[in-house]
Amino acid sequence: MEPTQRRKELLDAAKQVFAEKGYHAAGVADIVERAEVARGTFYLYFKSKREVFTALLDYTFQTLMERLHMVSMDQPETIIRGLLDNMSAIERYFEEDSEQANIIIREAMLLDDDSAKRVDEMRQAVVEFLEQLLTHWQKQGILRPLDPVLTAHAVVGAVRGIFEQRMIHRRLEAGEGEVMEHLLSLFVFGIIDPEHFELAAGHMRDIGLED
Amino acid sequence: MEPTQRRKELLDAAKQVFAEKGYHAAGVADIVERAEVARGTFYLYFKSKREVFTALLDYTFQTLMERLHMVSMDQPETIIRGLLDNMSAIERYFEEDSEQANIIIREAMLLDDDSAKRVDEMRQAVVEFLEQLLTHWQKQGILRPLDPVLTAHAVVGAVRGIFEQRMIHRRLEAGEGEVMEHLLSLFVFGIIDPEHFELAAGHMRDIGLED
Amino acid sequence: MEPTQRRKELLDAAKQVFAEKGYHAAGVADIVERAEVARGTFYLYFKSKREVFTALLDYTFQTLMERLHMVSMDQPETIIRGLLDNMSAIERYFEEDSEQANIIIREAMLLDDDSAKRVDEMRQAVVEFLEQLLTHWQKQGILRPLDPVLTAHAVVGAVRGIFEQRMIHRRLEAGEGEVMEHLLSLFVFGIIDPEHFELAAGHMRDIGLED
Amino acid sequence: MEPTQRRKELLDAAKQVFAEKGYHAAGVADIVERAEVARGTFYLYFKSKREVFTALLDYTFQTLMERLHMVSMDQPETIIRGLLDNMSAIERYFEEDSEQANIIIREAMLLDDDSAKRVDEMRQAVVEFLEQLLTHWQKQGILRPLDPVLTAHAVVGAVRGIFEQRMIHRRLEAGEGEVMEHLLSLFVFGIIDPEHFELAAGHMRDIGLED
DNA sequence: AATGAATGAGGTTTCATTCAT
DNA sequence: CATGAATGAAACCTCATTCAT
Question: Does B143 touch chain A (CB under 8 A)?
Answer without folding.
Answer: no
